[in-house]
Design a protein that fits this description.
Elements (H helix, E strand, L loop, with lengths): L2 H14 L4 E2 L2 H8 L13 E2 L4 H14 L3 E4 L16 E4 L15 E5 L4 H10 L16 H7 L6 H4 L6 E8 L4 E4 L12 H5 L7 E9 L6 E9 L2 H14 L3 E8 H11 L11 E9 L4 H9 L4 E7 L2 H12 L1 H6 L5 E6 L5 H15 L4 E7 L4 E7 L7 H12 L18 H4 L2 H14 L17
Parallel strand pairs: 2-4, 3-4
Antiparallel strand pairs: 1-2, 5-8, 6-7, 6-8, 9-11, 9-12, 10-11, 10-14, 13-15, 14-15
Helix pairs in contact: 1-3, 8-10, 8-13, 13-14
The protein binds (2R)-2-hydroxypentanedioic acid and zinc ion.
Zinc ion binds next to strand 14.
Length: 459
């Protein structure tokens, strides 16, 4: 480490203590590479503050030194937004793991940034409530990271995204000030809504240290059904019908025959049906009373359903979910995929699913395209395997198709490094200039995750 680096390190040690400034190559390695292995960098230090005051102290030290920082939670992000790709200091917020008792009467809880999604879910359940957000990396992903990326997941169609759960936030802004508004008032029209602004800002405006979350009524009775279809468009059509016909619908997830075969092989699962089908819809309905009749009636009205498996008990429900939730893990066995997380207007979803493989094949004939995702939200995860990590032609082609069809180039994973070059296709110059103005106001020295989200050239 050079002189500047050594001075920075000793100043950080003064703030958090020697045990929480990590520089040993073996120890920091895990903080420098993302889950997929596609994004890897290096850092002069990983700092692990244990309180909001320590986070503010770390930001002050880094600002004075002109050192950029990247905030990190569970490091489960998929767009290269939480790893030090340009030599940033990593501020790991995992030690901010305080979880207050659930406020049963309000149906709210205050959680530190480092609390996992799974821990919030369990605490809520223990107090007779539920947390409305869920996704496969629930036991690694942290609340802070989910707020930074406005994470979506499998229950958005019923409860909304992470932003919709936020009733308060505490954060250290780039200028070093602490904003804290955790009182939990459901109605509070006292100016700009900082939780909404910070949610989805990908660590570029402030480091979220704690949040106040709304909880949702628990649904004791659940039914999961796996529906098979012989055409992708029929599965999409069914997702639309079920959203309208099943008031208790909590999830409507899509995957295809090739994805299912890969999952069964990679994870070691038996196929769900005797015959293979082209497309599958995994649906979950939940209520205080059993939603079985409501779901069965609605499914019965769908002539295109070729086969169906129904599960009511929790073990069997989890078995059916594995066919969908294991896609990411199964794809990782094929190498490092390009991951394009996109949203389409519902009316364009089937046409996009039909067109995407051809668009990829036109620029990368040896590549394979895998399609799955949250059909109920119009959110498709396009994974492409068999292309080099830096070959952007595939990303270009798919994202151009998405824009042409009126969709979004990032549905729930964020922009990060991966989509930065495409932001200008999704947002107007005036919008990006407004983003920059907000960034300059809250992070005047430009030290907070300066290499993600905003493309250069709009100063
Ligand atoms: C999911 O829905 C996640 O399973 C990951 O958002 C998607 O691996 C992916 O592309
Ligand atoms: Zn997803």
């Amino acid at each position: 480490m050079d002189g500047d680096g050594a001075r920075l390190r000793s100043q950080l040690i003064e703030v958090v203590g020697p045990d929480h400034v990590l520089t040993d190559a073996d120890v920091v390695a895990g903080y420098c590479v993302d889950w997929t292995g596609r994004y890897a960098g290096a850092t002069p230090a990983v700092v692990r503050p244990g309180s909001t005051a320590e986070v503010a102290g770390v930001v002050d030290v880094c600002r004075a030194a002109g050192a950029a920082v990247v905030a990190q939670g569970g490091n489960t992000g998929l767009v290269g937004g939480g790893v030090p790709l340009a030599g940033e200091v990593v501020v790991s917020l995992r030690r901010l793991s305080a979880l207050d008792p659930v406020d049963r009467r309000a149906g709210q809880v205050t959680a530190g940034a480092g609390v996992t999604i799974g821990a919030v879910q369990r605490a809520a359940a223990g107090a007779g409530w539920a947390y409305g957000v869920d996704f496969a990396s629930r036991d690694s992903a942290t609340i802070g990271g989910s707020v930074a990326t406005n994470a979506g997941g499998t229950r958005v169609l019923r409860y909304g995204d992470t932003r919709a759960q936020l009733v308060g936030v505490e954060a250290v802004l780039g200028g070093g000030s602490v904003v804290s508004h955790l009182g939990g008032l459901v109605k509070d029209n006292t100016g700009y809504h900082l939780p909404s602004l910070l949610c989805g800002s990908e660590g570029t405006l402030g480091l979220v240290t704690a949040v106040r979350l709304r909880l949702v009524p628990p649904a004791g009775e659940r039914v999961v059904a796996l529906l098979a279809f012989d055409a992708v468009a029929a599965a999409v059509e069914a997702a639309g019908v079920l959203r309208r016909a099943v008031a208790s619908l909590e999830a409507a997830e899509l995957f295809l025959d090739d994805g299912l075969a890969l999952v069964c092989e990679a994870v070691g699962l038996a196929p769900p049906f005797p015959a293979t089908h082209r497309a599958y819809l995994l649906v979950e309905a939940a209520g205080r009373t059993s939603p079985l009749t409501e779901l069965a009636d609605a499914v019965g009205s769908l002539a295109a359903v070729a086969d169906v498996a129904v599960a009511e008990d929790s073990l069997r429900r989890a078995d059916l979910w594995r066919y969908r939730e294991s896609h990411t893990e199964a794809l990782a066995t094929l190498g490092t995929p390009h991951k394009l997380d996109v949203a389409l207007p519902f009316g364009a979803l089937a046409a996009f699913l039909a067109a995407a493989p051809g668009v990829v094949a036109a620029v990368a004939p040896a590549a394979r395209t895998w399609l799955f995702g949250h059909a109920g939200d119009g959110n498709v995860h396009v994974n492409v395997t068999g292309v080099g990590p830096d070959d952007a032609a595939v990303d270009d082609a798919v994202l151009a198709l998405v824009v042409e069809m009126g969709g979004s180039i990032s549905a729930e994973h964020g922009i990060g490094t991966a989509k930065k070059a495409w932001l200008a296709h999704a947002r107007s110059p005036a919008e990006i200039a407004a983003f920059r103005a907000v960034k300059a106001a809250l992070d005047p020295a430009g030290i907070l995750n300066p290499n993600v989200l905003l493309p250069p050239g709009f100063e």
